[in-house]
Amino acid sequence: MTERGDVVLRVVPQLTDINANGHIFGGWVLSQMDIAGGIIAHRIAQGAVATVAIESMKFITPILLGDIVSVYAREERRGRTSMAIRIEVVATRGRECKEVALTNGVYTFVALDANHRPRPLPEL
User: Fold this and answer.
1) Cα 58 off chain centre by
2) Is 51 within the bounds of a domain?
């Protein structure tokens, strides 16, 4: 694990992910972040989780077609039933494979029981 956390996803945006400006839709990257955060939250909760909030979100640089997008995630804090997952998105761009920070945010997930109600997280 790095300072950013674990690399959870590595994806390449497709032509269908481009907006009218020639950049990748913000919603596309939000969904990739939610998927990656959910994977980490599921591991921590040892079961089902749901996204309940995006506490902060910052777009730094547009995502371009051809970028290799890496999504990093790590636990930032934990409550009784919920956890905050810090998510950072980085592109590997161009022939020189330059690393470019794209976006970051903190997503909150809650652990769910069989009835889809909040349940306590497992002990550390």
Assistant:
1) 12
2) yes
User: 93-114: per-residue pLDDT in tens?
Assistant: 999 999 999 999 999 999 999 9
Share of the chain above pLDDT 70, in %: 98
DSSP string, 62-91: --BTT-EEEEEEEEEEE-SSEEEEEEEEEE
Interatomic CA distance for residues 52 and 45, integer angstroms:
14
Query: Model-level pTM?
Result: 0.93
CATH number of the domain bearing residue 24 = 3.10.129.10
Q: Which tokens is 70 given?
A: 């890496």
Domain tally, the chain? 1
Residues 6+ apart with CB under 8 A from 49: 38, 41, 42, 109, 110, 111, 112
Q: Please report whether residue 120 resides in a domain.
A: no
Q: Token match 């790590």: residue?
A: 74
Return d(Cα 29, Cα 24) in angstroms, integer: 8
Q: Report the C-alpha gap between 105 and 36 in whole angstroms.
A: 12
